[in-house]
Write a structure and sequence with these properties.
The structure holds 2 protein chains of 2 kinds. By secondary structure, chain A is an alpha+beta fold. Chain A contains 11 helices and 14 strands. Chain A folds into 2 domains: about 160 residues, no CATH class; about 150 residues, no CATH class. In chain A, the strands form 2 sheets. In chain A, strands 1, 2, 3, 4, 5, 6, 7, 10, 11, 12, 13 and 14 form a 12-stranded mixed β-sheet that branches. Chain A has a two-stranded antiparallel ribbon with strand order 8-9. The longest helix of chain A has 25 residues. Chain B has 2 domains: about 150 residues, Acetylcholine Binding Protein, Chain: A (Distorted Sandwich); about 260 residues, no CATH class. Chain B contains 15 helices and 12 strands. In chain B, a hairpin with a 2-residue loop joins strand 11 and strand 12. The chains are: A alpha+beta, B alpha+beta. Chains A and B meet through loops of A and helix 1, strand 1, helix 4, strand 8 and strand 9 of B.
Chain lengths: ~375, ~450
């Protein structure tokens, strides 16, 4: 009798424990999923790797160490997929996936895959393609246009020409702060044509500033045609075509835009908006504009994306659409035009790059919230 | 597609660069303006592309030693500033170099290096409606320009329009500066109560405020009025100012002059703002300067004694046309324009009354003393000097330092008014005490 009751007590106790552990699993939020994925990833790393990945939350230098350029030119902080084993790489990608929506993650993979295409088509053996920097030229690596001058842990890599430039394993992951469901922290993932800056603060998730790019903007893999930034191009062109003559006159700028205005290094700046204001659009056109924005706003995981889209909707009337360049595109190809969507909490720039080739094949895009870059609204103390 | 890529790759190989490099055959020059209350700042980011780098480098490395010395960097920045032109309201500004930052030569060689030049320029005082023009002629054949303006942090500054030519080497920025500077402005700010009372409609309040500001900062209008008021308390005898009127008559004379000026400029303001009359603004500006000269001379030697009110009304007609230009630049609709005229005129009147209220007691008191002739002649000479400067400047579209000097003085307007009042009290007491003493001795 005595023995039975002890066993019963034990049984009930264990059952209760299982139930308790199940309850949080049921109530798991996006943030707790990302935190769990981050902790799993960190647990696969050795101490030295972990030290390379982790930065202080207030490390402004690392926060701003991102660029459109290949990693050999602007070294990133953190650790690259190339330096990881299979388990670590899988855990890293699972972490990135946990912070993004399914479509967002797919976009990221397509951008990385595009860089692999780059590596296989556009490049001779490394070291063969031009003058090396003079020996002993150990000054600070390139700065400016490619982002703020990298230094610290990333700064010892040679500025350029040494080492591979393209490839889907040349993407770096870093974590600022301690992954937490309560306190703010940050996940960065990027390389050539990609800079994801995800700030997590409680249940808030902020993706700004984020850079996406594609070169080639169209490629075939396993017989399938891929356009990593195809929707960004097609939806904007559809909106332009839905405008009437008068609206087009306002939306289409009379001048050429050679590049991003608010590229890397231009955090927190709000330029005077131009073009056609959404308050001068009809319901259908406004919905189309919101759909263009969703291509960036929906990169982050669903609940953060929903909050962001609500914010975009609220500010829609004060959102501007401006276009510069060709107003047509070859069907199935990206536009060769620049466009900008700017609202009270938003700057999106889509900038084809003129590099002697077809500008429609090489795109840089920028996604910002000048009022909340790096989620400062939520992390400010 | 493949052939295209191969072709592109071939070009890159020929140039010794791979396909990712940011800039190739262009010299990207991005300028970003920031508007302040009385200065404009800009950051220029210059990125030479790989193919144009050697040429650009050679122009910076003037001694050809392959190293960009501090002096060469500085000299290059100054050269860039020499190749740009910046003007506000047609007045050429001189950009001052604030800082210059160079990337490494290696970075530039790869088309990744960004030269950063910060410059700044002081803005002359002027209309609330301003036009900034920036032209960049640096290395035109190889350059791709970008020009933008940050949304002004100061909420009183609002960008109205931006215009560029197709390659952005020419940039025109129209903006309204609705509030403003030091000096008279602190006075204006204290009128916020009045503004709030009137401000059921934002448009009305802001146009009213514009009217206040137009007088507070439109030093030419003020100078005209003050110069005309200088001899108002005095009696003229032939070609001399002699003696003084009694207080009652002095006040009446001042009131008449101010009212006549108001009636005059209200008529033309309404006519011009409603589009009944249309006059080009430059001759008007010249005539306004002439009106100051006339009233300055009148303060020295009576030209039209006793008829100040008529003269004030006549020149008021001219000043009103200038007010209309300001109002016209707001681009108001027909109905808005009617209320706009009312608001603007009320603003002008308010500020005018304020100026008169601030100076009249001093004028009346001082006019009873000998010191008055010093003030009258000094004031008249100052107004005369300023008006001649303005006439020359506005006729020849030349740049002179008149605005600078007058603005300096206007910025101290409150202190000058206070000092004037204290001085008038001292002089008046001295005169009275001396008179009493004299009587005592007698």
């Amino acid at each position: 009798m005595n023995a039975f009751s002890i066993r019963t007590t034990w049984g009930i106790g264990v059952l209760a424990l299982i139930c308790l552990s199940l309850i949080p699993a049921h109530e798991q939020t996006a943030t707790s999923r990302i935190v769990a994925a981050a902790n799993t990833f960190l647990s696969t790393l050795n101490d030295k790797q972990r030290q390379t990945v982790l930065f202080a939350f207030n490390d402004e230098e690392q926060r701003k160490r991102w660029s459109n350029l290949p990693v050999s030119f602007v070294p990133r902080g953190g650790i690259s997929l190339k330096e990881m084993n299979t388990t670590q790489r899988a855990a890293a990608m699972a972490l990135v996936a946990s912070a993004l929506s399914a479509r967002g993650f797919e976009k990221v993979q397509q951008i990385m895959e595009g860089d692999e295409v780059n590596k296989n088509t556009d490049q001779g053996p490394p070291g063969n393609r031009g003058p090396r920097p003079p020996a002993g030229a150990g000054g600070p690596p390139p700065s400016g246009n490619g982002g703020p001058p990298p230094s610290g842990r990333g700064g010892n890599r040679p500025p350029a020409w040494n080492g591979p430039i393209f490839g889907k394993d040349l993407y770096y992951i870093s974590i600022l702060g301690k992954p937490s469901e309560k306190d703010p922290w940050m996940l960065q993932f990027g390389g050539h044509h990609l800079a994801l800056n995800v700030t997590i603060a409680g249940e808030q998730g902020v993706l700004t500033p984020t850079l996406t790019g594609a070169q080639p903007a169209l490629y075939t893999i396993d017989g399938k045609t891929v356009r990593p930034l195809g929707q960004e191009s097609d939806k904007a062109l559809a909106l332009l075509n839905a405008l009437d003559e008068n609206q087009r006159k306002q939306a289409i700028l009379s001048y050429r835009l050679a590049d991003l205005v608010l590229g890397p290094g231009q955090d927190g700046k709000t330029i005077q908006p131009e073009g056609l204001k959404a308050s001068d659009m009809n319901e259908r056109q406004r919905a189309m504009l919101l759909d263009v924005i969703s291509e960036w706003a929906n990169i982050i995981h669903e609940s953060a994306a929903a909050a962001r889209m609500a914010e975009m909707k609220a500010g829609l009337n004060d959102t501007w659409f401006a276009w510069s360049g060709p107003t047509t595109a070859t069907p199935g190809h990206n536009i060769a035009a620049y466009y900008r969507v700017q609202g009270p909490n938003l700057v999106i720039e889509y900038a084809p790059q003129k590099l002697g080739g077809d500008p429609a094949m090489h795109v840089h895009t920028m996604y910002r919230d000048p009022t909340n870059d790096y989620g400062r609204k939520f992390t400010a103390k | 597609m493949k052939t295209k890529l191969t072709a592109a790759a071939a070009i890159f190989l020929a140039l010794g660069v791979s396909g990712f490099a940011h800039r190739l055959d262009e010299y990207l020059q991005a300028t970003l303006f920031s508007l302040g209350e009385n200065r404009v700042g800009a950051v220029m980011r210059l990125v030479p592309g790989v193919a144009v780098f050697p040429g650009v480098f050679a122009t910076i490395d003037t001694n050809g030693d392959g190293i960009l010395s501090e002096a060469e960097q500085q000299a290059y920045a100054e050269r860039v500033l020499g190749d740009v032109s910046l003007s506000v309201d047609g007045k050429r500004l001189r950009p001052r170099l604030v800082s210059v930052n160079f990337p490494t030569t290696e970075a530039m060689k790869e088309g990744l290096g960004e030269i950063q030049i910060n410059f700044m320029a002081d803005l002359p005082a002027g209309d609330p409606n301003r036009k900034l023009v920036f032209e960049n002629h640096h290395q035109t054949p190889i350059s791709a320009y970008l020009v933008n303006c940050l949304v002004p942090r100061n909420r009183d500054i609002r960008v109205v329009a931006q215009n560029r030519n197709s390659n952005q080497s020419f940039y025109e920025l129209d903006y309204v500066q609705a509030d403003g500077r030091s000096g008279p402005l602190s006075l204006v700010k204290s009128w916020s109560g009045v503004r709030a009372a009137l401000g059921s409609s934002v448009g009305f309040a802001s146009i009213f405020r514009l009217g206040i500001r137009h007088i507070a900062e439109g030093t030419d209008h003020l100078l005209f009025l003050l110069a005309l008021l200088l001899p108002a308390p005095l009696l003229a005898s032939r070609s001399q100012w002699v003696g003084f009127e009694d207080v009652h008559h002095s006040l009446l004379r001042i009131l008449k002059v101010v009212t006549a000026f108001t009636i005059g400029h209200s008529i033309t303001l309404a006519l011009a703002a409603l589009g009944v009359v249309r006059v080009p603004s430059r001759p008007i500006e010249v005539l306004i300067a002439v009106s100051i000269l006339v009233s300055a001379v009148h303060a020295l030697h009576p030209l039209f004694p006793g008829r100040e009110a008529a003269i004030a009304a006549f020149f008021g007609l001219i000043h009103g046309l200038a007010f209309a230009t300001t109002l016209g630049q707001l681009g108001l609709g027909r109905w808005e324009r009617v209320t706009g005229i009312l608001a603007f005129n009320l603003g002008i009147e308010t500020m005018q009354l304020f100026v008169v209220a601030a100076t009249m007691p001093s004028l009346v008191l001082l006019s009873r003393t000998r010191a008055y002739s010093v003030l009258r002649i000094g004031g008249a000479l100052f107004a005369g000097f300023a008006s001649v400067g303005w006439i020359v400047e506005r006729l020849l579209e030349a740049h002179s330092s008149v605005d600078l000097v007058v603005d300096r003085v206007a910025h101290q307007a409150i202190w000058i008014a206070v000092a004037l009042f204290l001085m008038s009290l001292v002089c008046w007491f001295r005169r009275n005490v001396l008179a009493k003493q004299a009587r005592g001795f007698a």
